[in-house]
Design brief:
Layout: H1 2-21, H2 29-33, H3 36-53, H4 60-85, H5 93-109, H6 114-132, H7 136-143
Helix pairs in contact: 1-3, 3-4, 4-5, 5-6
């Protein structure tokens, strides 16, 4: 029954935020860059996380599923923006998504993730070196990992 109420909450929040988004003129910058679905889901898991931390909600699985949706949205939003700047930056897909996952895991568990941070930092360093030394064959393979 918990999921039912969360889904109802997301739907209500969606229509409230959609109404707020459509207030204002056509030149409203928020209107262009604001995703109502993303905001509804993000606000929901943030509220649920706060409730979890004060022991008023106990479904960590539901929070993590909603967080995963937000991570996916952040990933695709960033990839789209970065692709407009320089498509070669897309080689950083793997370290970026793993960084997001580690951050979300930390937020959910508050566990020490120092070992994971070292692995992710090493991965970032490796990808930066590949980018700097412009190994076009390897960069091409990395860019082709996720065909659009």
């Amino acid at each position: 029954m918990e999921l039912f109420y969360i889904l109802i909450w997301i739907i209500i929040l969606f229509f409230i935020l959609l109404t707020i988004k459509n207030i204002g003129g056509k030149k409203n910058r928020i209107k262009k860059n604001f995703c109502v679905v993303c905001a509804s889901i993000s606000l929901t898991w943030i509220i649920l996380l706060v409730l979890y931390l004060i022991n008023l909600f106990d479904n960590l699985l539901l929070i993590s599923l909603l967080m995963g949706m937000s991570l996916t949205g952040i990933y695709y939003f960033t990839e789209r923006k970065i692709g407009k700047i320089n498509k070669k930056f897309r080689i950083f897909r793997l370290p970026f998504i793993l960084t997001l996952i580690a951050l979300a895991y930390y937020v959910l568990t508050l566990e020490d993730i120092i070992n994971s941070i070292f692995i992710i930092a090493g991965l970032w360093a490796l990808f930066v070196l590949v980018y700097i030394y412009n190994n076009s064959k390897l960069i091409k393979k990395l860019l082709e990992c996720c065909k659009e």
